[in-house]
Amino acid sequence: MTASPRKAYARLSLASGEIDLHYRVLGRGPALLMLHPSPLSSAFMVPMMQRFSASALTIAPDTPGYGRSSSMPGTVSDLAPYVEAMRRFIDVLGLTQYAIYGSATGAQIAVELAKQDASRVTGVILDNAADFTDEECEGILQGYFPDATPSEDGSHLARIWQVAHDSTVFFPWHHPCEENRIAPQPGAAELMHMTAMSYLQAGPDYAEAYRAAFRNERAERVRGISAPVSIIRWPLSILKRYTDRFDGYQWGSQVHMAHCEASMEARLQCIEAQFPRVLGSAPAAAPSTGEQAGFGYVSTSFGQVRYGTRGEHRNTLRVHAFGESIESIDADGVLIDLPGHGESDCPPLDSITQYVDACAESARRVTEVFTLPTQAIDREVASIGQDLDDIKAPPSLRPETSGAHLWRGWYHLRSQRLQRATTMTSAAVLTQKLLDLFASQTVCQQLRDLSEGAP
User: What is the distance between the alpha carbons of residues 401 and 386, in angstroms, rounded to a whole number?
Assistant: First the structure.
C-alpha cells in the first residue's frame, strides 16, 4: 500500500500577524520543499510526494490563502509576504538546509525564496516557469481572474467553472484562439472539478499570490540564485511557448535546462534526475506533527482527525452535522472534523457501529489534547447512530465536463435550507457547505447504504 503523507499545521508569526500554515510531509532523506501551483494546494502534490519520498523528505505546504492555510494578513502586492512565510516555516521545522521544487506560482515563490534564504537552499527545480514580457503579462492579467465572490444566484459557480474548463484547452484561458490552444479538446472532468474546488476554497482573494507570481515570471529573476537551478522543459506544459525562451539565454553553470519527453512518467523521471544536483547531502529530521493548540491533527487507529479552536471558551467539544466540516460550525469551542469529513480520515466501514466507534475515538483523542472533561463529548457523538436521518441523499455529484454536478449540489443544499428556515443562508455559507458536501460525499453515501441495509 502506498503511504499517505502526514498532515499538520504550523503557527507562524509574521510581520503582518499570525497565520496557521497547513502542510503535508512524507519520506526520508534530504529535505525537499514542494510548492504547488495556484489555486491548488498541497493535496495536488501528494502523488509526486509519494514518488519522491524514497529519495527525499518531502514537505508540501499550502501557500497562505490556499487549501487549509490561513489567508495572508494585510495587503499583498508582491511575493515578499509569501517568501517571509516560507522562511518562517523552515525556521519552525528546524531545517538547516533544503532544496525546493516549485510549479507555476510555486516556482516563482521558489525563485525569490532561494535568493532570500541562500545560506540554507541547496538547489532549486523550476517547473511550469515562464518568461513573459511586460506587455504579455499585463495582457494576460487583464481578465484572467474572474470575481469569485459568492452570489446568491450561484453565478460564481459558472464563472469559476468556465476558468476550470477552458484552462484545459487554452492559455490564457480567456483568450480562446488557435494561437493559445494547448490541447485539442477539454481535459478530464475530474481535473476541472479539482481546480474549481480549489478556487472556491481559496475564496474571493484567490488571485493574490497568483497575480504576484505572474508579474514575477521573468528569466532575469532566476539569475540572482546562487544555488544550482534546474529548469524543467516539458512539452505538455501549458506555459511551453513561454518556457521555450529560457533555452535562448546564456546561463551560468549553475542553471541547467532539463528537457523531458512528453509523457508524465518521462517528466517525473526528469525531475528525479535533478536530485543529485539540488538535494543536500545530509538527511533531514522529520518535523514533529504532534498535537498542539490551535489547528491540528490527532492520530487515531484509522488515521488522522483534524481539529480546531474558536473563541475563548475552549471547554466544550463541538461536532458538525453530517456532510459538513469544522468550517460550518457556528459556535465557539474545540471543533472537530468527523471521520471522512473535511480533512479527517475514515476507516473502512462495515457497520454503523464501526463509524460511531470511530467518532467516539476521535472525540476522545481531541479531549485528551485539550484536557477536556469526559462530558465534553457532545450529544452529536454519543447519538450519532440515531442521526442518520439527517443525511439527505444528494443527486449525483460525479464530476461532469459541463459542470452540471456543481449546480445539482448547489440547489440540493438550497432546497434543504429553504425547507428548514424562512430566510436563506448566505451565499458564502452555502458555498462552504457545497465544498463540505463534495468532501464528505463518500462517507455519507456509505452511511446511507449501511443504514438502508440494516435490519
Answer: 37
